[in-house]
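To illustrate the input format used throughout this study, we show a single complete record. The first block contains the structure-token representation of the backbone; no residue identities are included at this stage. The design step must infer an amino acid for every position from geometry alone.
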């Protein structure tokens, strides 16, 4: 059964792989990977109504998986394949920050921490517990031995005061606020 499927669809799968990769070596690798999957799932072939559609789906999914794996491995655009015929929406976004973004984030973090240190002790602790230590309101309430309502109002006042202080400092405001 599987030999008949191979004989009938081998050329079709190869041309599909070639169209996707635009490279004969990659097309052959992809095709081999597709046929390995077909052999692995040989028991399903008997239940498939449209073998060509099933093979096309396996080929497309295998191609997407390989491409996504390559994108994850490649951190920089210059190392990614140039001749790729896939929709942009299929590309996996890179969640890592660029060096510039990391530096900017660190600078802003330092500026905010500097201003946070100028806050009154109670507001400073409340902000620290909530945003840095990531304690819940109930945990902060227990730590500071006050009601949750008090924690909420301290948090609100601390954020408002911190915002005022950041905006009042022209150098920091220009660094943080969008132009």
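Output of the design step:
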């Amino acid at each position: 059964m599987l030999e008949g499927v191979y004989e009938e669809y081998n050329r079709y799968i190869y041309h599909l792989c070639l169209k996707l990769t635009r490279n004969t070596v990659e097309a052959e690798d992809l095709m081999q990977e597709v046929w390995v999957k077909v052999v692995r799932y040989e028991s399903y072939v008997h239940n498939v109504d449209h073998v060509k559609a099933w093979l096309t789906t396996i080929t497309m999914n295998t191609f997407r998986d390989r491409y996504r794996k390559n994108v994850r491995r490649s951190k920089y655009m210059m190392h990614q394949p140039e001749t790729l015929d896939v929709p942009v929406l299929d590309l996996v976004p890179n969640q890592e920050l660029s060096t510039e973004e990391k530096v900017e984030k660190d600078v802003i973090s330092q500026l905010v921490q500097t201003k946070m240190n100028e806050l009154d002790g109670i507001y400073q602790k409340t902000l620290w517990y909530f945003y840095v230590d990531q304690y819940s309101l109930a945990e902060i309430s227990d730590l500071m031995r006050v009601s949750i309502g008090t924690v909420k109002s301290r948090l609100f006042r601390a954020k408002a005061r911190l915002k005022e202080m950041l905006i009042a400092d022209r150098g920091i405001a220009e660094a943080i606020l969008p132009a």
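Structural context for interpreting the output: The mean pLDDT is 79. The chain has two domains: 2-90, 99-176.
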